[in-house]
Amino acid sequence: MKLGVLFSGGKDSTYSAYLAKKQKHELTCLISILSKNPESYMFHTPSIEKTKKQARVMDIPIMFHKTEGKKEEELKDLKEAIERAKKKYKIQGIVTGALHSIYQASRIQKICEELKLACFNPLWHRNEIEYLEELIKNKFDIIIIGVFAYPLDEKWLGKKIDKTFIENVKVLKEKYNIHPAGEGGEFETFVLNCPLFKKPLKLKGFKISGEKHSWKMEIKVE
Q: pTM (2 decimals)?
């Protein structure tokens, strides 16, 4: 089946694309939403424009679509983006990286139904720790590029998802109810390398901004 991937450049959307390809689906295009609202309920925002670098090393065309990021209204923009992909690339379905967010999954499902497209959520209700371990096992090189919840701070930026990271988020889950996979928006990620890439991306520089427990890292990759 020809599939479009709702793509943020983070671990969830990238791994979902990887699983869809393993199931012999054709990844026809990537769809990235550029939201002006850093507090968007639907869309990943840090370093989102760097997805074009990932698209290049995956050799998959990418479509960008802008939104003001206003709650609920941004769904109209998402529908327009998916509709554009359907017309241009003849996609038959959409891949999402939703894990537990009913808010996201239900709204994307509704759009797919309206556009007569299949909706694939390969990570839905995965055990978070097992999922993180699976990322490592399948050689996903992932860094943290945004943190947005206490007690996370700027020291977490740039950290890789590895065994040490998993042990740390287990503690955070117990003490502060932090979702280990960041599904509640506690942290956001960027994939530097994975089996879908023809070659790894290299971090060439970054700029950190934020305060208290809301920090993000704008990265430069090649």
A: 0.95
